[in-house]
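Much of what follows relies on a compact textual record of a protein's fold. A record is reproduced here so that you can trace the correspondence yourselves:

. . .
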Amino acid sequence: MKRYLIILLLYCIGNIEVCAQVVSDRTNKITISNTQINTVLPEITWIYPRLEYTNSQVNEIELKATVVSDLKLKDVSIAVKSKPDGQPIAKKAIEINENGLESTIETSLFLNDGQNYIEIIAENIDGGIVKDFRSIIVGMDAISDAIAIDRKDYALLFATDKYDNWNDLVNPIYDAETIAAELEQLYGFEVEVVKNASQDKVFTKLREYAQKNFKPQDQLFIFFAGHGQYDDTFGEGYVVASNSLTSDPGKNTYISHNRLRSIINNISSSHIFLAMDVCFGGTFDEALASKRALSDDIDNTEFIVKKLSIPTRKYLTSGSKEYVSDGIPGKHSPFALRFLEALKSNGGEDRILTLVELNTYMQKLITTPRYGGFGNDEQGSEFLFIAR
């Protein structure tokens, strides 16, 4: 999805003409006049706006980004244009850190109504130039059928490996923290990891998220890792909290799937995906949704807008009505390992990881993963992991 324009300027001595070469892919090797020159190019990371194409109802836009280079930076600047190849309407030089290898961009811009292109340009001392842009349409009428600039993705991860009454586990917190780091760094999620939570703490934290003011295109990912149990008498599955009792016939110290399903369904976010790496997690819901092929007739922006307009309540579990492995200490559980493999794929060429794609990684598990919808889920809904 990111498109870098890389220009290396070769300044020659005497009467030799100044040469330039434009390269469209990501490479540190640039050939000029049949001579291959190696340079380590700067790297631009957008924090906000995160997506290439967004829309805003307000004219004042916050901009956050970083530029990092292995070679000293010569110049870093921001340009605002009305079209990609147009002349800058405004341009601003950005200060380079004292070490010469980094630049932190944090500023606000006032953009005109209509189409705006914000471009960051970074040049190193070798003359290697990297450019990357964000397109923002400004206007009150632009937001209804486009990606909102202020949409956010949230991740709430519950992980328990220390229990008052159950055997301790080795990987849940390690798994959750690693997944959280990938979501934050690769996909721009705002993450929170809740460790070794009691039953009351789990419900209190879920209540806190239920009281959040989610915007229409915001997404919420919820993850549980730890012990799970199934009660044949009640015909009900449970998440085991850190303080759950082993002798509890009424299951009053456990987190029932029925209650969990109801609470999560009532959270105001329109797009929720629940993943459970617990034993008997597949008993969360008996109705399994079938895989749906994705249309390739629309571009990425249209696809995101379309999917974020349909209410989503999806779940994925590490197994069905069975025990699942916690894994080798420090090596991740089998479910977490597959989940991380999917995240690290960046969603492939389009840089959008869908649940259908994520579920294909889970088919490698020895246990039987379960995937489906619950509550207010609607046909054609999707949860999207959108890579930076």
About this structure: The chain has six helices and 23 strands. The chain has two domains: 5-138, 153-386.
